[in-house]
Amino acid sequence: MQPHVVIIGGGFGGLNAAKALRGAPVRVTLLDRHNYHLFQPLLYQVATATLSPGDVASPIRWILRRAPNVRVLLGEVVVIDVQRRQVRLEDGTEIAYDYLIVAAGSSHTYFGHDEWAPHAPGLKTLEDALEMRRRILLAFERAERETDAARRQELITFVLVGGGPTGVELAGTLAEIARQTLRHEFQSIDPGRARVVLVEAGPTILPSFPPRLREAARSSLRRLGIEVREATTVTGVDAHGVLLRRDGIDDRLAAGTVLWTAGVTASPLLRTLGAPLDRAGRVMVAPDLSVPGHPEVFVIGDAAAAVDRDGRQLPGVAPVAIQQAQHVARGILRRLRGASTAPFAYRDKGNLAIVGRGAAIADLGWLRFSGVLAWIFWLFLHIFELIGFRNRLMVLVQWAVAYVTFQRSVRLITNVERPERYERSERSG
To answer: What predicted TM-score, i.e. pTM, was given to this entire model?
Structure first.
């Protein structure tokens, strides 16, 4: 019987590992708790009502339909037993493996303050994006009905915690919604008076970019009316805003909506490996991305604490996960031929971030630029990377409509609690 390769996770890492093993002399089983692959770089556009969930997600079975040696199973892995070479699913099912690729991903972290989670949703899943969209749109609806001026301004004040690419992209799009998309749609409020505040605990936003591009991003954010607060720590979050600290001075910022884009933590599943972990819960892998002491187990993507040739931590971005997946697949095939695996070497092809309409920054290493050209480059690169012709076409159409009309086509508020008066009428009926 052919060797069995089990892959945990259908994200960028797991999916590309399965693709790389298509047609190889191995049996492959890909396990994921969702039946779809999510294109996370565009998830914030679902949260800001530009794209629909179906535009950024594709069924895993459809993607791998031409890989006859790959079996896709819907299920959540809860334990990895490296001694018995088995994984156990939530329902108790056990699946044996000869080789294991762990691409379990990550989730957002509140740095030990999980009590903040109900007041500050993160952005890692489709459910997160839809919850953000609901809160953003409801903020304006509630402000329209509010008679107290101070409370009305609080409702349309948005705080984004985390100044990485996701926070910057989300802040820019949110400001455009308030200033352009919602213009002339309300009677009691002016959406253009919405306040968007981007808070970063570190000394600068977008720390992975060079200083010149960071300054270009700051300028674009300021032109959109966004307040940028760097070197500012969030010390508290509640239903009415955030507590901030800068230079030892505490300040309270009243806000109706707080959105969390700061920090990630690896899947708790990794703890069952019994391998050394870093502070973020990622596995400290060997140079070939295997688990020390278990050469048949590989960890990739957000789950791996891997470093480059200079000893610097590799970022948790899609290009890293994709290259690691392809490297691990080649390593497994080398093992089957009796050869040894090689150390992983990341080829950095650049870094991009969009700030707003017609504004982006691009660091390609050999070329750095910003403005409209970087924005166009960002658009076409993301369309090219999307899976499936339908998704590419739909995203292109949606972006074209949004650019020409300033409108977001999926401004739907879902999962809204029923007003108390409706509940009373049903009870009385």
So the answer is: 0.91
